[in-house]
TrEMBL record:
Residues 182-288 form the HTH LytTR-type domain. It comes from Desulfohalobium retbaense (strain ATCC 49708 / DSM 5692 / JCM 16813 / HR100). Residues 123-143 are annotated as: Disordered. Residues 5-120 form the Response regulatory domain. This is Two component transcriptional regulator, LytTR family. One of its GO terms (molecular function) is phosphorelay response regulator activity. It comes from the Bacteria.
């Protein structure tokens, strides 16, 4: 079974941790991201296709979880919604929005197991099959480029996913064995961003945001793993949260207290702090 992706969005960190621990008990469900605020959850959901989302119905920063749910329902393939509440007051509104589940916190182990079982039964997204009913002799425009999608069996899909993960995550001996591109998620699609287009990468919990001149994209790797992968391509860890492409740095500014700030190419220019323990190594790399 292909691992389902789950997002945890709740303002209480202890609740998110309990949900994460429970989700990690099953092999078919993978927690890929957490958010304390609705805008953070929305940004994640817009950049990665999630199968399920745990969220609070009440206030989550700028808006409520119910308002977030309304925004998510406008997406082509919205995640299934599981509301974690303290009262039943908003249950009706949640189910009117198509909630998969609505349960009270604190929840027992048995109740959380019921939630996971509901997630496990989520049907897979429909695979669109083009031109299957028109017949073999139906005219096809010469200029239209067609895409044929072949479904994989469960076993074949698991082997394919594992092979793909190995290709993207394991260090290889030479750059010729792996393209100089980084896989990222955007609107439910996987894009390959050339390393030379990356300005910097910012860590966010167990995932990262890859920043380019055209926008930022989600990558489900830890910053440490990306640091190891990109070190030979002139990427440098300037801070516990930032990995920067040195070829995109246009200015090194001295700051009070013997600190440094890097300014990058692009519009607008980005200023990134350099941690004190990395200053000497950075100066050596830049010949300063």
């Amino acid at each position: 079974m292909y691992p389902l992706r789950c997002l945890l969005a709740h303002p209480v960190s202890e609740i998110r941790q309990t949900l994460r621990d429970h989700c990690q008990r099953v092999a078919w469900l993978r927690v890929v991201g957490e958010a304390a605020r609705a805008n953070e959850a929305l940004e994640l959901a817009q950049n990665m296709a999630y199968n399920a989302l745990f969220l609070a119905p009440g206030p989550m920063g700028e808006c409520t979880g119910l308002e977030l749910a309304r925004l998510l329902k406008t997406m082509p393939l919205p995640p299934a919604l599981l509301f974690v509440a303290t009262t039943q007051d908003q249950a009706l509104e949640a189910f009117e929005l198509g909630a998969l589940d609505y349960f009270l916190w604190p929840a027992s182990t048995e109740r959380l197991d019921q939630c996971l079982e509901k997630i496990r039964r989520i049907p897979p997204p429909p695979h669109a099959v083009q031109n299957t009913t028109a017949g073999n002799n139906a005219p096809r425009p010469a200029h239209k480029r067609e895409t044929l999608r072949l479904d994989l069996g469960d076993d074949d899909e698991e082997h394919f996913v594992e092979a793909l993960k190995a290709t993207w995550s394991e260090p290889l001996a030479t750059s010729a064995q792996r393209p100089d591109k980084l896989p990222v998620q955007s609107a439910g699609k996987t894009l390959l961003i050339p390393y030379v287009h990356i300005i910097f990468i910012a860590a966010e919990d167990d995932y990262c945001f890859v920043h380019t001149s055209s926008g930022k994209y989600l990558n489900a790797s830890r910053l440490k793993n990306l640091e190891e992968r990109l070190a030979q391509h002139r990427f440098f860890r300037i801070h516990r949260k930032y990995l920067v492409n040195l070829d995109m740095v246009t200015e090194v500014a001295s700051m009070p207290g013997a600190n440094l700030m890097l300014r990058t190419a692009g519009t607008p220019r980005i200023e990134l702090p350099v941690s004190r323990r990395r200053i000497q190594e950075l100066k050596s790399l830049l010949g300063l």
